[in-house]
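Lecture notes, continued. The same structure-token format from the folding unit now serves as the input rather than the output. Read the line below as a description of shape only.
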């Protein structure tokens, strides 16, 4: 009932920037918290950033000061602005929506940062 589609991934140089977008279907988007997660090869998936229905945010320590999560409820879209990229940011990034009863994941978008 909810479909999440990420876009904006690609190749960036160290110190560069990328902006990820995740567009969601459904009419209740504004009622749920959202997040961005990433998984690098050989590593566990980790939370990168989350944003609540009141637009409060939380970030992984490794991205604080560099990444910004935001949401536009009118567009049913959540964003991740990534600045000052590092090679260790290379991963598949997925967006996430959590309801009280189930969770939804996007298909993921590859972010590669060259050294």
């Amino acid at each position: 009932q909810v479909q999440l589609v990420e876009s904006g991934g690609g190749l960036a140089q160290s110190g560069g920037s990328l902006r990820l977008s995740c567009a969601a279907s459904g009419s209740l988007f504004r009622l749920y918290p959202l997040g961005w997660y990433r998984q690098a090869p050989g590593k566990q998936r980790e939370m990168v950033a989350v944003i609540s229905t009141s637009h409060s945010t939380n970030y992984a320590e490794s991205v604080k000061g560099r990444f910004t999560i935001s949401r536009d409820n009118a567009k049913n879209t959540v964003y991740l602005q990534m600045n000052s990229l590092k090679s260790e940011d290379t991963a598949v990034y997925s967006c996430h929506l959590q309801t009280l009863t189930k969770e939804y994941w996007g298909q993921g978008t590859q972010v590669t940062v060259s050294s």
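Point for the exam: The longest strand covers residues 91-98.
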